[in-house]
Amino acid sequence: MNGEHFPNPPCEWSPGLPVLPIPAVYLLHGKGGSPLGTVKKIESILNQHWPGLDFVRPRLPHSDPSVQAEESVDFLRSQEIPQNALIMGISLGGLVAAKLQEAGRPDLQVIAISSPTWADGVQLEKNADRRLAFYSSSDSVIAGRADDWPKLTSFSRDLVWLSHSTDEHLKYIARLFDWYVEGMLPQWVDSIRSTSLTKQERDEIVWAAMESSQRTSREWNHSGWSGGRPRTFAEIGEAMRAGWTWHVAWGDWQHEFIARKDSRCLAAEPPEWFTPERRAMMAGTAEFFARLFELAKPEWVEKPEYFLPRLEYMSYLVSEPDDGDFMVFPPESEDALFRKIAKSPKEMLRRNVVFEARNLTIL
Prior knowledge:
- Helices cover 35% and strands 9% of the residues.
- It has helices spanning 38-49, 69-78, 92-102, 149-152, 170-182, 185-188, 199-212, 233-241, 246-260, 264-267, 276-292, 334-342, 346-349, and strands at 25-28, 55-56, 86-90, 109-113, 118-119, 122-123, 128-135, 153-158.
- Strand 3, helix 3 (92-102) and strand 4 (109-113) form a beta-alpha-beta unit.
- Helix 1 packs across helix 5 (170-182).
């Protein structure tokens, strides 16, 4: 994520609250594990919730069970992990992340999941402010090695249900991450298993429905728009010339595209009379959907005119103006702006467009 929008990142920290902006998120696997295992599943969930964040899944030396944890700490020390990065480690991954933090990287934010406080000759000795731990003292894998977490972190929870079978708890691990970044973890963590579907989880259902829907083979009239739903960006302009509002024309195009999943819906450029911000957003949409549905990326999206020179508040376009939680511009704080950026697809961000991915969902 481009940090140039945040020239003076905050340094204060309160227990359970994030330090924003987060320049990168590292997901660390456990002993004998792999970056292609549980942490990849976690990333697939989090990347949908926070598509603007950069996720990194390194292969740690302790992927070989015979390798000691200290080698993984040394490995992480050799990596160029950005200032204030967030590291979520599973099992031994959480311990080595916390040890790295303790051994000279207090700027790092660490979330340890089902991790021991000592293993393989590595032992935590000091409390670190930016450290969170979630574990079960009754987990047979780390039993007797997790009791000191309350003394070693300013925010921890002993969650009896959090067994070492991490794949069974992916939804709740994602909630811990989401609520941390949202700044709501202290208020919500104790209701983590009684909470109904979160906004992100509802979006997951919608995205899954959009991706799994059968492509329809509706007739394509090459004579152009004739009063039905717009199929291309050019036809959105024709519909608006005919009196349609932007929101109706755009929403109908989204429905038409998702029904067809046809690259021709992305092939035509937006009308030249649209604002630069709107045209940049539409180019980001075309690039994002082309990747998501494995369609050919239109060549026109790389034209310089579809890249804004700077982040523009007006580049964030409202599609639900009555939803008070949907948009606040100008943002009330740098943290609020960061969260909106973190929820925007990278195809938007590289054009300096802030447009949350959930704006592209349809029911």
